[in-house]
Amino acid sequence: MNRHTVIIDTGPLVAFLNRKDAYHDWAVYQLSNITYPVFTCEAVISEACFLLKKFHNGAESVLELIERGLIKISFDLEEEIERIKKLVSRYENISISFADACIIRMSEQSRNSNVLTLDSDFKIYRKNRGNVIPVIMP
């Protein structure tokens, strides 16, 4: 990941691809004003494909963004499993998702990253030693 990294969460990805989503216009605007590629993890891709499965070409549209190089998968769970376990344990009281834990870890690995999200839990989550995770959210 580079200096000006955007890490995308499930919500904006789904909103971008679903014109009926309440945040569709916001997601389109945000994604038209960033430098590509955006980065994410396989857990986010899995969630997005699942949430879009009832839409015509929903899951395929997610995968095409990867194929076109607009989204990069830059997370290796095997290398990061210990940190993910610690994050899941730390935030078990708010039922952190596996995808959120991976995104937190990605933000720890890239000092100058912003997380593009609709998830208000990212206002609670902290990276490294209590640092706020910079987010782009409505």
UniProtKB/TrEMBL annotation:
Protein name: PIN domain-containing protein
InterPro entries assigned to the protein according to its UniProt record, in alphabetical order: PIN-like_dom_sf, PIN_dom
Residues covered by the PIN domain: 6-126
